[in-house]
Amino acid sequence: MAEQVIICKDLTKRFGDFMAVNKISFEVNRGEIFGFLGANGAGKTTAMRILCGLSYPTSGAATVAGFDVYKQQESIKRNIGYMSQKFSLYENLTVLENIEFYGGVYGLSRKTIRSRSDELINQLGLQQEARKLVGELPLGWKQKLAFSVAIFHQPQIVFLDEPTGGVDPVTRRQFWDMIYAAAASGITVFVTTHYMDEAEYCNRVTIMVDGKIEALDAPQALKARFQANNMEEVFYQLARGAKRSSD
After folding, report:
1. What is the CATH number of the domain that holds 228?
2. Domain that holds residue 241
3. pTM of this prediction?
4. Between 20 and 30 A from 146 (CA), which of 63, 98, 103, 226?
5. DSSP for residue 2
6. Quick check: is 144 in a domain?
């Protein structure tokens, strides 16, 4: 059996009377690309923040890389990478300075940082831009650099929150090539997105509607189940069904 690196059971998050995450349960396997899909406001980011050790759940249980979300948040943070939906690098530092800074934050030795920095810059083709300020780079390059920095310390799991928002289709495709490479190296990828076509790139997807998980399976299986041509049609059927049940 595949090793499960994320386990959630009835995970819930309330903000006063508002139920942002409503008793969600799922598991994620090591090396899997796991899509967490839903419209804006569906509860994706709230759930991810809990799994990243940035917020406590109201109730339920979850472990990430074997660590409890209530009691071992710092251990979770040391074993994951995280890329927020807002650009997360320092625009007033150079490309190389950003890489070195985050390498230090992740606790890597100076020798390791130097060798991995050279390797990363060559992989990204940023040899000419290494000493430029990150703020001078096009958005697509910023996003690819941010992802590379998020896995610089070779974490067990990387969480990506809407990583391709605002970039052009070609850059989105290139970004997913990088995700495939990370997964092939053994890193588990947990990615939230509201782009339904990106679900096709995942091994399995969860579809969130109003804080609840309405479906979880491989994209092909979901399309067959809902007799849909694409994941957008699957999502539309689920969202429409959820609306009818709440009326």
Report:
1. 3.40.50.300
2. 4-88+157-246
3. 0.91
4. 63
5. P
6. no
